[in-house]
Sequence to fold (349 residues):
Amino acid sequence: MRLAMFALTQNGAELALRLSHCCDDAQCFLPARLTEIDAPQARRFARLGDVVPGAFRAFDGLVFLMASGIVVRQIAPLLESKLTDPAVVVGDERGHHMISLLSGHLGGANTLTRQLAAFCGADPVITTATDTEGKTAPDVIAAALALRPVPKAAIFRLNTELLTGKMLTYAVDPALTQAAFYEERLQEFGVTLASTERADVIVTDDMSKRSTGNRRLCLVPRRLIAGVGCRRGVSKEEILDALSAATAKIGRDVTAIDVIASTVHKKDEAGFIEAAAKLDRPFHIFADDVMKTVAERAQLRLSPFVMQTLGIGNVAEAAALAETGENGGRFALPKTIFGKVTVALVWEK
Fold:
């Protein structure tokens, strides 16, 4: 999860910097007036309102170390849907409390809140009803397994039934790719499995299995996109090994990858072409102008070396996000180096 961390005071800025060092991929946004804070990698702003809208669209999660009222006023005009809004967590500048404010389940704010609270010894504040009642909601499972809930209306209905004591039943469509994986993971959640005809929730990519009246929730696997960059002349085996290592980091097998994406500069790279053929997955390339636009919109970190070599400052992350198109994506793994190969993994929203 790519995080943007915001602070307004010196104490908040110091806490943001400490927390950022505990996260895989976090960018701090600090006021320009806090010149006493030595943070050369932080992005500086004159007004908080100048940077929040762009970050809301660009990052998977936003962490605000300030009064919750300020945060509510900042994000209120930006809200679209619980299916796509980023996780938003609010903490006080001393790190006493961490509050899951927005997208607790699908966006991952509840999990993020607990993680940040553990890092700094704060009290995690979770207010979603199913969590406070100790119930595992279907949208929690959806978030954990990178599944898209359809239709949205069924989420509220089933969560309400769950809170009134109903035991929800689940099923996995046997025709689904990696059906065995999903069935195993559902069992780890301790849910009750039923036939596909009788289940309240079904993991499937076949929308004909939706019931009339939206009484059944379908959990549809999201596409997993691997953005890849490499040194010239890298072998098929090196790329496959890197992709396998990357997917293992998120608890998946390499066969979970749906698309391999890279820059147009790698269109004739034999290793890429052969690796994609071995996995029987499409290999998509993107032009420089597309990659630059994506990198700017997503506020990706740019590599001076890659910029000097290829003329674009980010390959793996930009290519993966470019493949998501208008749907956008959430990072499963930020760009990570595996020998001569760099991989970023993105779930399509």
User: Anything to note?
Assistant: The mean pLDDT is 94.
